[in-house]
Design a protein that fits this description.
Oligomer: single chain
Strand order of the largest sheet: 1-2-3-4-5
Distance between the termini: 36 Å
Mean pLDDT: 83
Radius of gyration: 14 Å
Low-confidence stretches: none
Structural class: alpha+beta
Strand content: 15-25%
Shape: globular
Order of helices and strands: HEEEHEEH
Length: about 110
């Protein structure tokens, strides 16, 4: 995932494991200079034989709170597939409240 992000021009950073204060596995800053101050996207990377969506989403919500960010997703690598065929998973509320408004280009939530 890190290699793919960097090959596509993103300033991705590995995050240190912090136990109960974990903030995810990868951070992508919102600033073009690559600094991790302010809002950023976090990715929880998974390479497992069996997807445990409920567990993964619960972990993601905690990591979002720890990182103080509204933008996060789980990237789960598929067995015997490259990273470009990985799944991106996130709770509906996060998609609705953080990601979906990015597509509206100035439209209000009520329109």
């Amino acid at each position: 995932i890190m290699v793919d992000l960097r090959e596509h021009g993103y300033h991705a950073h590995r995050l240190a494991l912090r136990g109960g204060l974990d903030e995810g596995d990868i951070a992508i800053p919102s600033h073009p200079d690559g600094e991790l101050d302010g809002q950023h996207v976090i990715i929880q990377a998974k390479d497992v034989g069996r997807l445990q969506l409920s567990l993964f989403c619960d972990e993601l919500i905690v990591q979002m709170q720890n990182a103080q960010t509204s933008f996060a997703a789980i990237v789960a690598k598929r067995r015997r597939k490259g990273v470009e065929e990985a799944y991106v998973i996130l709770p509906w509320k996060e998609f609705r409240d953080a990601w979906l408004p990015l597509t509206q280009k100035g439209a209000s939530k009520d329109s």
